[in-house]
Design a protein that fits this description.
This protein has about 260 residues and is mainly alpha-helical. The protein is built from 11 helices and 2 strands.
Length: about 260
C-alpha cells in the first residue's frame, strides 16, 4: 500500500495549493464558456466522447449522484469519527449529504419543470409540425416524437456541483495524514480518497465534453451557474452559521475567522 500512500500525499499536497483550492470553481465557468465557443465554431472534431453512448456517460454520468454518495458517505463516516467528534456532531456533519441531495433534487426538478413549461411536442426533427396532444416531454417522447423546450444542462449542473461537493468534503484528509488511525481505517480512507479524486477527474473531463459537444451555450452556462450557486450558498454562506451541518472538521475554526 506504499504506492497508495504516495498518491494520497501528492493529492493532499495538490489540493493544499491556495491558487488551486480557491479558484477551482472558476474552472467550470471557464470550461463552459470556452467549450461553448469551440462548439459554436465547430472547431472540435467528433470523437468517442461526442456520442452519448460512451461508457463514461452511460455508466458514470447518468448515475453521477449515486457514485458521489456511494464513495463520499463511507469517507465522511470514517473521517468524522477520526476527529473524535461527539455523536451529535457527527450526525450533524452527515446532514451535509442530505442537504446536497436536496440541492441536487430541487435544481434538477426545476430544470425538468422549465423544459416542460417552455416546450412543445413536434412530430418531426425539423420542428415544423406541433402535436398539441402531448403536453409534457415524457408523454411526447413515449409517443416517439420530439420535445423542444428550454433544456438547462443537467449535466453541466450536476458535474460541477458534484466535483465541488467532493473537494469540500475531502479537505479533512490533509489533517488525517498525521492523525493516529488504525491500519485498516487508514487503508480504507486512503482508497476512498483516491477513488473520490478519480471521480472528480472524470466529472471535470465529462463536464468539458458536455461543453464542447452538447447543448446550447445558454443552457450550459445556466446549468453551470446553478451548480456554483448550490455550492456557494452552502459552503460559503450557510455552513459558516451555527444552525447548519457545519464545515468539515479541520477547517471550521480557520474559515469562520476568515469570513467573520
Amino acid at each position: 500500500m506504499a504506492a497508495v500512500d504516495v498518491i494520497v500525499d501528492n493529492l493532499v499536497t495538490l489540493w493544499r495549493i491556495p491558487s488551486i483550492r480557491q479558484n477551482f470553481h472558476w474552472i467550470f465557468l471557464l470550461i463552459s464558456v470556452v467549450g461553448s465557443i469551440l462548439k459554436e465554431l465547430e472547431l472540435v472534431p467528433q470523437t468517442y466522447f461526442s456520442s452519448t453512448r460512451n461508457a463514461l456517460n452511460v455508466y458514470f454520468v447518468k448515475v453521477s449522484w449515486g457514485w458521489t454518495l456511494l464513495l463520499l458517505t463511507p469517507f465522511l463516516l470514517l473521517s468524522n469519527s477520526s476527529f473524535n467528534l461527539t455523536v451529535p456532531s457527527q450526525c450533524r456533519r452527515l446532514l451535509s449529504l442530505a442537504v446536497a441531495t436536496a440541492v441536487w433534487y430541487i435544481f434538477t426538478e426545476t430544470f425538468f419543470y422549465i423544459e416542460d413549461a417552455t416546450g412543445s411536442c413536434y412530430e418531426t426533427d425539423t420542428v415544423d409540425f406541433v402535436n398539441k396532444e402531448f403536453m409534457s416531454k415524457a408523454s411526447c417522447r413515449r409517443a416517439g416524437f420530439r420535445w423542444d423546450g428550454y433544456d438547462i444542462s443537467g449535466h453541466s449542473f450536476i458535474l460541477a456541483y458534484s466535483a465541488l461537493f467532493i473537494v469540500e468534503e475531502t479537505a479533512p484528509m490533509a489533517s488525517l495524514r498525521t492523525a493516529k488511525l488504525s491500519a485498516l481505517n487508514r487503508m480504507v480512507l486512503n482508497l476512498l480518497y483516491v477513488a473520490l479524486n478519480l471521480i472528480v477527474i472524470v466529472w471535470v473531463w465529462m463536464f468539458a465534453c458536455t461543453s464542447v459537444y452538447f447543448h446550447d451555450p445558454s443552457h450550459k452556462l445556466l446549468g453551470t451557474i446553478c451548480g456554483l450557486i448550490g455550492w456557494y450558498l452552502t459552503y460559503r454562506v450557510w455552513y459558516l452559521k451555527p444552525l447548519s451541518p457545519g464545515l468539515p472538521p479541520h477547517r471550521q475554526r480557520k474559515e469562520r475567522k476568515q469570513h467573520a
